[in-house]
Amino acid sequence: MRSSAGAVLLTALLLLAGGAGANAVRGGARQCDTEGRAVRYLVVFEPPTRRAQATAQVDAACGELATFHAQIAVGVATSADDRFTEYIGQHRAIASREPGHTSQSAGTVPRSPDERIGTANDLTDRQWNLRAIRAEQAHTRQRGSDDVVIGVLDSGIDADHPDLRHSVDRELSAGCLSGAADPSPSSWQPGVSAHGTHVAGVLAAADDARGVTGVAPGARVASVRVVDDAGMVTPEAAVCGLMWAADHDFDLVNGSFLVSPWPGTCARGSGRDVVREAIRRALRHAQEQGTLTVVAASNKAAELTPSHALAPEGRACEVLPAGLRDAVSVSASTRDGRKAGYSSYGLGVIDLTAPGGDGGRCVLSTVPGGYATLCGTSMAAPHVTGVAALVASERPGATPDQLRRTLTETATSVPCPDDDLTGNDTQDAHCEGHTGYNGFFGHGRVDALTAVEQAAGFR
Questions:
Q1: Which is nearest to 237 in space by CA: 76, 80, 374?
Q2: Lowest mean pLDDT: which of 110-119, 287-296, 351-360, 391-400?
Q3: Is 148 exposed, middle or buried (0-12, 13-18, 19+ CB in 10 A)?
Q4: Over the Cα atoms of the chain, what is R_g?
Q5: φ and ψ at 168, to 5 degrees?
Q6: In contact, 372 and 198? CB cutoff 8 Å
Q7: DSSP state letter for 416
Q8: Residue ranges of the alpha helices (H) in 221-306?
Q9: DSSP track, 75-130
């Protein structure tokens, strides 16, 4: 176990492009437009690029370097010149918000909570989700250690909620909406969305016979805000959040969000390679620093293709960060164990499944001012992250690979359904694979009790 002190963009990295255009170069120096509206860009550099080199390249492209993650050679720049991407290289940068971009859900089924409860009476009898993964049985042995820190990359956490006051680490929390980490409380507290507080409750709500109980009630969570009030996660925010978690020695990250700065979820839009490369580097850095990242598969009911298996001009659907190798991707299952109709799926993408609920049987958790139910892969992911926190607590010093292996080896296998139903009574999705590993459920449903027992056996 490590000390408790403790989006996206860019792909094929080219050297700074020349050939700026006849009207852009005069006497060897560009005449930059400084009168336009300043736009923020995520920029990928050829590793290893030092900050001074990155600054020079951005300056030459009529921009200003605002943030630079030297470990992965990714930066955030601003420019008022609409030719910035042309100057820096179109395969090296993407604007934070381009015309036509639409806000994307952070992973929940797109609707408000279907029920709100203000009382703090004991609500655990309504937490079917805990029983589905045998979390209550696991708690008889392991409830989570406060040496384990989980970064909740989301819309912010209500740190004053009675069920979360004990678990939120304010010193390790930060906001990343600008692409640069800001540890001031106003930057990481929730805005209009209850999403992050709900996720945090699934992870670590107090087991105190009041309200709800989290999967790992003894672990700590840090609020790392990457979701803005429109439900959007920009690539630079996602990279910033992953880097903050890795560089502050978080054991785990829960990423219940989708990075998609394009009009369509599966769109192969301009800059997608940039986003993929930047997130890939950030995830790899986190892995190397000892942080395991668990993410939601998205609620698009889409068949997903692993990022490394995409054909150049194929019609396959990729979502980020779920399609990347270093992410543990989670699909959502219903109370009766079927794949939720909204949950995306795909052989080689889905690693595990966990309760996400559907219809009137959603997941009950904390929200500012009380409790509420929400459905989604956003709710499924923290079940897996919470079990990983129990394993990390039981086995201090476990590496990300060891945590991942324990989760997948101890999962309860779920076979493809005979009728290939998604859970919405229509045969509109095909489950590929076999009982032990398939596109709907991955290695199976996460099992807290068996995972903790296996971790205990390592000692």
A1: 76
A2: 110-119
A3: buried
A4: 22
A5: -75, 120
A6: yes
A7: P
A8: 235-247, 272-289
A9: EEEEES-TTHHHHH-TTTEEESS-TT-----SSB-SS--SEEE---SB-GGG-HHH
Count, residues in the chain: 459
- 8 Å CB contact between 395 and 251: no
**What is the H or E stretch that residue 457 is in?**
helix 448-457
Model confidence at 425, pLDDT cuts 50, 70, 90, reads low
The H-or-E segment that residue 153 falls in is: strand 149-154
Q: What is the pTM of this model?
A: 0.90
Place of tokens 């394993």: 391
Q: How many CA atoms lie within 13 A of 255 on its CB side?
A: 36
Rounded (5°) CA angle 220-222-223: 140
Instruction: Indicate whether 151 pLDDT > 60.
Output: yes
β-pair partners for 95: 41
Going by DSSP bridges, is the β-strand pair 252-255/292-296 parallel, antiparallel, or unpaired? parallel
| Distance (Å, whole) CA 241 – CA 239 | 5
Strand, coil or helix: 161: coil
Strands 174-175 and 220-225: parallel
- 367 closest CA partner among 207, 201, 155: 201
Cβ proximity of 107 and 378 under 8 Å: yes
Strands 220-225 and 292-296: unpaired
Cβ contacts of residue 418 below 8 Å, gap of 6+?
Answer: none
- Pick from 283, 199, 228: which is nearest to 96 by CA? 228
Token duo for residue 124:
């655990």
**DSSP classification of residue 37:** -
Asked if residue 393 lies in contact with residue 216, where contact means CB atoms within 8 angstroms, the answer is yes
211-257 pLDDT, tens digit each? 999 999 999 999 999 999 989 999 999 999 999 999 999 999 999 99
Q: How far apart are the first and last CA of the chain?
A: 13
Enter the DSSP assignment of 25: E
